[in-house]
Amino acid sequence: MLVVVMRREAHESAFSRQREDLREWQQKLQEGEERLSKAQRIINQREERSDENDKIFKQKEKDLEEAQRKIDEANSMLKKKEDEMSCRQANLVLKEKACFFLLLHCTFFIYLDFSLLFLHEFDATRKKLVIKEEELRVREEKLNDREKVLELFCFHIQQIYSL
Questions:
Q1: Distance between CA atoms of 146 and 6, rounded to whole angstroms?
Q2: Which of 37, 61, 129, 137 is most buried (CB neighbours < 10 A)?
Q3: Residue 133 CB partners (closer than 8 Å, separation 6+)
Q4: 3-state DSSP of 26-46
Q5: If the chain, 163 residues long, is cut into consecutive pieces of 10 residues, what is the mean pLDDT of each piece?
Q6: Is 77 in contact with 85 (CB distance < 8 Å)?
Q7: What number of other Cβ atoms are within 10 A of residue 34's Cβ?
Q8: Any idea what DSSP says for residue 115?
Q9: Distance (Å, rounded) from C-alpha 100 to C-alpha 108?
Q10: In this structure, how many other beta carbons lie within 10 angstroms of the beta carbon of residue 117?
Q11: Using CA atoms, how far apart are residues 85 and 79, in angstroms rounded to an integer?
């Protein structure tokens, strides 16, 4: 009977150790599952941040493409304005030369004929020239104003581009 009791105690002791080992194993398993769950949450959070960063990057890329398109349009407009101003400047030079030759022509006729009629016509022509000169001055001021506006526009475009 002593042997049976000893066997039973040994069996209970072994069973108790196995139960304790099982509890420890179960506790380690739960801790491992918790660590795994925490790691999975961290991974999910990182993926969400990565997705958000991708969205932000794509939006910034679209914004940059839109800004580049606007800059290209502005450059095109500036080129057209520059061509237009060059044409206007060339026309202005031609008009100035025409006025100069008209003035020379008038001067030539003054020396040929000092008649009153010619003097009257010369005076009228001179007034026209003065008016033309004033018109040219006004046009030049307008060109200057447009150049200033164009420079300001370029400055704003450069500011947009630098963003």
A1: 112
A2: 129
A3: 99
A4: HHHHHHHHHHHHHHHHHHHHH
A5: 81 89 92 93 93 92 90 85 85 80 70 60 80 88 86 81 69
A6: no
A7: 10
A8: -
A9: 12
A10: 8
A11: 10
Q: What is the pLDDT of residue 38?
A: 95
pLDDT of residue 88: 84
For residue 119, the model assigns a pLDDT of 60
pLDDT, residue 115, reads 61
DSSP-based three-state secondary structure for 140: helix
Helix (H, G, I), strand (E, B) or coil at 151: helix
Number of residues in the chain: 163
Whether the CB-CB separation of 153 and 79 falls below 8 Å is answered with: no
CA pair distance 134, 128, nearest whole angstrom: 10
**Is 136 within 8 Å of 96 (Cβ atoms)?**
yes
Q: How many CA atoms, within 13 angstroms, populate the side-chain half-sphere of residue 104? A: 6
pLDDT for the residue numbered 97: 81
Instruction: Evaluate whether 149 touches 55 at the Cβ level (below 8 Å).
Output: no
65 φ/ψ angles, rounded to the nearest 5 degrees: -65, -40
Query: Residue holding tokens 């999975």?
Result: 40
DSSP structural state of residue 67: H
- Picking from 104, 100, 106, the residue whose alpha carbon sits closest to that of residue 118 is 106
Query: What is the structure's pLDDT at 109?
Result: 63
